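Reviewers of the previous submission asked for a worked example of the structure-prediction workflow described in the proposal, so we include one complete record here. The input consisted solely of the amino acid sequence. No template or homolog information was supplied to the procedure at any stage.
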Amino acid sequence: MDVLYSVTGGADTFSANKASDGAMSVITGEINGIPYVLDYYNEYTENIDSSLALFFDMKIDTDGGNLILTDPVGDVIWQQHLSCLRDNDFDNNTYRNNIPMKRLYSGNAESYAELYNELWQKAMENSIIDFADNDASILKARILRQCEMCGTVTKAAGPPVKIETPYTDSYSL
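From that input alone, the workflow returned the following C-alpha cells.
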C-alpha cells in the first residue's frame, strides 16, 4: 500500500474490487483516479504455518506507462507505453522508439527466508516505532490511511481458499 500511496501522492479516493477467483486471484481498483491491478495467491492448507506461498505482483497504469512491482522481494520497474511510429510511406520506424524500461528499485532480499525472517520483521518494527515516536500527524494519518487501504483490499479479496493438496515447490528443477 505504501507503493500505491507514494506513487499517487496520497489516497483521497481508493477502491478495490475482486476481478477473478481461483488460486491466483485479481483485485482491480483505482487510487486517486489511477487504475491498478493486484495479482495474488489466495490459498492455504491445513498446516498454514508451513504451507505459505507468497505470490503477488502489482501494476499501476498511467497515461505515460506502467509502474510494476514484480514480486514481494521487489524490483520496481517503470515501463513507458509503447507507440509504433510510422513515416509517410508507412514504413515502420520503431528505431525512433527506443523506449527504456527503468529499474527504479532493486529488491533487497536474496531469498524469501531473508524477506520473512529479517526484512519484514524490521520493516514492521520500524513502522511501529515511527508511528509511536513521531509527532507528525501527517505521518500518522498516512500510516492509518494505508491500513484502511489494506483493509479495503483484504475485504475485496475475501478469505483464502483451503486446499487439500499443499503447494508444490516448482522452484526445484
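Residues 112-133 form the longest helix (22 residues). We consider this example representative of the routine output the project will generate in years two and three.
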